[in-house]
Amino acid sequence: MKKAFKLDGLDCANCAAKLERAVAKIDDVSKASVNFMSSKLVLEAADDKFDSVVEQAKATIRKIEPGVVIKA
């Protein structure tokens, strides 16, 4: 499954790169990309693991950049 999420509060390209690297390392993530200009996270993972991956991504982002919020 592939889905895009809005990242509210993303305010620097370096932060976007850090988030992309961290989310890509989560188990079961096939691909993760963060576009700083559009403030979007595109996440790919297996359908049966997707909800779990999204929750892990939210926790990872909260830990690295507490001011950034994922919105569907």
UniProtKB/TrEMBL annotation:
Look up keyword Metal-binding and say if it applies: yes
Q: Where is the HMA domain?
A: 1-69
* Alphabetical list of Pfam families matching this protein: HMA
Q: Quote the CDD domains the UniProt record gives.
A: HMA (cd00371)
Does the record's keyword annotation contain Cell membrane?
no
What's a single GO MF annotation on this record?
metal ion binding
Entries under SUPFAM superfamilies matching the protein: HMA, heavy metal-associated domain
- Matches recorded under InterPro entries: Heavy-metal-associated_CS, HMA_dom, HMA_dom_sf
Q: Where are the transmembrane segments?
A: none
> Which keywords has UniProt assigned to this entry?
Metal-binding
Per its UniProt record, what Gene3D superfamilies does this chain match?
A: 3.30.70.100
This one is known as Cation transport ATPase
